[in-house]
C-alpha cells in the first residue's frame, strides 16, 4: 500500500476516478432525491442515506467480482447479427425503467391529485426497491469505468467511498433544492429520461460520449440558474 501512495501514476488515476465517480453519482442522487420526495418528511433522509449506502456497497461487491462483471460483456446470444450480452440486457432494462419512472413522475406532477394520503411504510420499501434496481445499473457502469482507469482494487474502492461520501454530504442540499423549485425538478426528470435513453442506446451498442451529455446538462443547469435568479429579482416588483 505504501508503494501505491508513492506512485504519481496511482495518484493521477485516483483523482481522475474520484471526479468521474462523483459525476456518475449525480444521476443516482437525482433519482434517489426524486424517489424519496414521495415519502413523509421524516423518512426522506433515511431513504437517501440507505440508497447511497446501497449504491456504494453494490459497487464494492462488483469490484471484488470483477471477473464476473467483465464476463457480463460476453455475447449471450446472437439475434440477426446483433450480439446481446447480460450487460446489454441490464442497461436496456435499467434504461427503460428509468424512462418509465421519470415519465410517470412528470405525469403525476402535472395531472395527479396530490391531496391523496400516502401509505408510509409500504411506500418506503417500494422506494428502496426502486433505488436498488437503479443502483445495480449505475453500479455496473461505474465499476466498468473504474476498471478502465485504475489498476489497483484498493484505489478503486477508496475512490468510490470518497465519491459516495461527497454525494452524501450534498444529497440533502440537492434534495431540498429540487423540492423547493418545481421547474428544477422537471429539469432533473428530463435529465433522468435522457440518461435512460443513453443506457438503452448503450445496450443496443450505440455509444454516446458522456462528456457531450454532461456538457448539455451543465448548460441546461446554467439556463435554469439564470431563470431562478430572474424570478427572485422580479418577485418583489410583481408583488407590489
Question: What does this protein structure show overall?
Answer:
This protein has about 240 residues and is mostly helical. It contains nine helices and two strands. It has helices at about 1-5, 10-35, 40-65, 65-70, 85-110, 120-150, 155-180, 180-205, 210-240; strands at about 75-80, 80-85. The protein starts with a helix and ends with a helix. Mean pLDDT is about 75; it is low at about 115-120.
What key attributes describe this structure?
240 residues, two-stranded antiparallel ribbon, 4% strand, 9 helices, mainly alpha, 2 strands
Question: What kind of sheet is the major sheet?
Answer: 2 strands, antiparallel
Number of E-state strands: 2
| Strand order within the widest beta sheet | 1-2
> Helical residue percent?
over 70%
Q: Which consecutive residue ranges, at least 5 long each, have pLDDT under 50?
A: 117-121
Topology pattern, helix = H, strand = E = HHHHEEHHHHH
Percent strand: under 5%
Helix and strand content put the structural class at: mainly alpha
What is the distance, rounded to the nearest whole angstrom, between the alpha carbons of the first and last residues?
Answer: 65 Å
Question: How much is the radius of gyration in Å?
Answer: 20 Å
Helices and strands, with pairings:
Blueprint: H1 2-5, H2 8-36, H3 41-64, H4 66-71, E1 75-79, E2 82-85, H5 86-111, H6 120-149, H7 153-180, H8 182-203, H9 210-239
Antiparallel strand pairs: 1-2
Helix pairs in contact: 2-3, 2-6, 2-7, 2-8, 3-6, 3-7, 5-6, 5-8, 7-8, 8-9
Give a short summary of the structure.
By secondary structure, the chain is mainly alpha-helical. The longest helix has 30 residues. 83% of the residues lie in helices and 4% in strands.
Amino acid at each position: 500500500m505504501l508503494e501505491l501512495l508513492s506512485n504519481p501514476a496511482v495518484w493521477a488515476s485516483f483523482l481522475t476516478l474520484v471526479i468521474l465517480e462523483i459525476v456518475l453519482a449525480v444521476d443516482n442522487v437525482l433519482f434517489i432525491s426524486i424517489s424519496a420526495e414521495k415519502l413523509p418528511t421524516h423518512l426522506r433522509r433515511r431513504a437517501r442515506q440507505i440508497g447511497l449506502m446501497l449504491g456504494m456497497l453494490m459497487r464494492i461487491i462488483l469490484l471484488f467480482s470483477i471477473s464476473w462483471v467483465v464476463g457480463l460483456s460476453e455475447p449471450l446470444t446472437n439475434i440477426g447479427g446483433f450480439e446481446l450480452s447480460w450487460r446489454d440486457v441490464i442497461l436496456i432494462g435499467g434504461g427503460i425503467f428509468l424512462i418509465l419512472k421519470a415519465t410517470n413522475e412528470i405525469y403525476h406532477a402535472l395531472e395527479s391529485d396530490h391531496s391523496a394520503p400516502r401509505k408510509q411504510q409500504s411506500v418506503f420499501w417500494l422506494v428502496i426497491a426502486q433505488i436498488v434496481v437503479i443502483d445495480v445499473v449505475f453500479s455496473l457502469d461505474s465499476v466498468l469505468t473504474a476498471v478502465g482507469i485504475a489498476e489497483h482494487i484498493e484505489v478503486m474502492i477508496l475512490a468510490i467511498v470518497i465519491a459516495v461520501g461527497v454525494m452524501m454530504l450534498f444529497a440533502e442540499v440537492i434534495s431540498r433544492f429540487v423540492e423547493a423549485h418545481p421547474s428544477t425538478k422537471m429539469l432533473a426528470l428530463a435529465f433522468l429520461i435522457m440518461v435512460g435513453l443513453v443506457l438503452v442506446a448503450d445496450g443496443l451498442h450505440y455509444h454516446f460520449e458522456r462528456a457531450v451529455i454532461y456538457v448539455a446538462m451543465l448548460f441546461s443547469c446554467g439556463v435554469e440558474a439564470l431563470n431562478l435568479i430572474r424570478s427572485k429579482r422580479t418577485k418583489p416588483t410583481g408583488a407590489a
